[in-house]
Amino acid sequence: MNARENSPHSVSFYDDSGRYRGLFSWLFTTDHKRIGILYLISVLSFFAVGVTLGLLMRLNLIDPGRFISERTYNSLFTVHGVIQIFLFIIPAIPTTLGNFFLPLLIGARDVAFPRINLLSWWLFILGGLIVVLSIFTGGGAPDTGWTFYAPYSIRTASNVSLALFGVFILGFSSILTGLNFVTTIHRLRAPGMKWFRMPLFVWSLYATAWTQILATPILAIAVLLLVLERSFGIGFFDPTKGGDPILFEHLFWIYSHPAVYIMILPAMGVVTEIFPVFARKTVFGYKAIAFSSLAIAFFGYLVWGHHMFTSGMSDTSRIIFSLITFLVAVPSGVKVFNWIATLYKGSIEVYSPLLFSLAFIFLFSIGGLTGLINGTLSLNLYIHGTYFIVAHFHYTMFGGAGFGFFAGLHYWFPKMFGRMYNERAARTACFIMFIGFNILYFSMFILGLQGMPRRYFQYLPQFRTNHIISTIGSWIFVAGLLLMFGNLIWSLRKGKKAPGNPWGGKTLEWQVPSPPPRENFEEIPVITHGPYRFD
Amino acid sequence: MRSLMYLTLFLALISLLTGGIASANETKGKEQIGIEEKLGQRIPLDASFRDETGKEVLLKEVVGKPIIVSLVYLKCAHTCPLLLGALAEVLGRLDLKPLKDYSVLTISFDEEDTPDIARDKKRNYLQAINHPFPESAWRFFTGDRENIKKFTDAVGFNFRREESGFAHPVALIILSPDGRIVRYLYGRTFLPFDLTMAITEADKGKIGLSRGVLLYCFSYDQPGRRYVFNILKVFGTVMIVSLVSFFLYLTVTGRRSQGGPK
Questions:
Q1: Domains of chain B: which residue ranges?
Q2: DSSP string spanning B3-68?
Q3: Which among A108, A109, A186 has CB closest to B250?
Q4: What CATH architecture applies to the domain B34-217?
Q5: B255 to chain A: which residues are within 8 Å by CB?
Q6: Is B223 in Cβ contact with A241 (below 8 Å)?
Q7: What is the band of B244 on the pLDDT scale with cuts at 50, 70, 90?
């Protein structure tokens, strides 16, 4: 790239705090990098809560009833789901790595609306705290499952309304971020950065942002109707008053299925940045990857019905939903083959970001292929509501989006914090997590096929062995997580100073110092060619 | 200040739209559908119906042995066929002798149903028993509004006409030989044991406890639902239109210069 190197004396954004001092220089910052860090801290804090709840669930399942009561278990899986979905996996990549790197990647000084960006974070924190508050107040933590299906969510005495209100606010944070990113990508690309010269992570953020803008209002409506229903008994979802409980399922999944792509698309974008750098080779099929992001976002809107194959729908619509579900696999497959083709005949250097990305491909492929099993109408009727589904979505969301996030975190850590982490510890952590993950979740596929229903506190004796294996897997996995985050946190202070471009990347963010100065670029670079030119 | 005004306007709009639904439902919600149990009370023996052959029959002519009564409307496409299907299935599994130990009576609460339709349904469900079953042991009655009301009031069966079909509870009612209500069986699947028990006790005139969970049958195309969909349509259209114009605006106005070094 033609980006000019900044002078080595430029001040990093950590030292250039702007108008405010101390804590306020963070809480009221409009710098996209500081907001990215704020999001990173908040998202990871919520993640820690979510993981703890998940661990407690697994703990119950080695000996149901010994540690946790039935009622508590219902709340555990509900709050675990709400936190991991709405407070971790949906915002994880766009708000942290996206916020930090989008302007850097397209050669801009900031996002288009820096103050709205800060507002998004405040709304996120507010919504998140309300969700957490709903655990401790009112009629007790919600116990409906993260899907809030009517009519139970209308009747339960637990604190569903407050949790829904939190989710409602989180939705606005998500919409505003999407709006901000779309405008930024349209308006603030550096001179010469045409659409097909943008890094592919930017393409995936672009597709994600549109999905956020278009789909999240539907969630807001669904949640609003549910709150009105609970408070005033209007009857949207109550057949005695002319409503229909299935309507809620439709509204919920019209948002929540596209939301699945809000989770996975940015992770795909992250690993697309990583492969060319560690293979020292330009990405294979640039346009195919860019368009497949848009295609996934588009088809993602038309498949929500596959969550409802057993809810009461006509055969015609079920067959159509099943068919379109298969179509989503095509662009996902295009991406996987392109990543592998990028590695093919490259001069591969194995560092932890690449290891995490390879783990991503492996786990996401298992998740994606079992998704085809779920999408097959006849098979779905057999495995619907079993652990098979639980295993599937943990492979896609956690194995996919989660590992993609960790890959990105290791790839960009030197740029964000100006320090290197201990490479050996990072590799070990990746290895332990990969092993733990498969023990934890693959046993759930088997449990599901054997007939273990999801969300059950108790189970028949024949499921015991696999439940114990799965719980042991959860301990191994968490050990890996602790090592990974321990290493990163330790490196914040003790790590070696990072050079501007430790991996030899060609995209714009590597052409500025680590950590970047407040205004990113001393002079806005002029772009003359595509992002992955390794000569 | 201005945003506050918009917010107020927005909330007012919401309350208008939802208010429309609330009032639409209020008028409808007045009659609560369901079953008010009238255990021990006698059915109106002087009420008259037509059986499936079109013959006029007084209820006092059918009593004399335990009777299993089901209340349905014959054009129902929702839960009623499931109820009658389940009844037919369990009748085939009873050890008791039809006509001798008990008889079965299906009464339509839709005054627009005719003996012709009743005959058709009867043929259908007798076949579904899958077992030789005397034709006269399961009769299908239709009647006029007045007689229907007399009967449904007496057994505490509250239903409501909807734009298409009815909303009504789903249950079997067991009568003793002297025409008193001895038991309600709720739900739409029945065990031979429960039915045998009910008939045996009815024969002795013993008033029993009702079993099962009350279910309802709703028709899905209710007029009240249109309002909800209107909200969704309005919001959906507004969203799509504004997003398309946002996209066009961004595309047309293009990239902005960020100026030189700061």
A1: 34-217, 224-253
A2: HHHHHHHHHHHHHHHHHHHHHHHHHHHTSPPEE---TTPBP-TT-EEE-TTS-EEEHHHH-SS-EE
A3: A186
A4: 3-Layer(aba) Sandwich (3.40)
A5: 186-189
A6: no
A7: very high
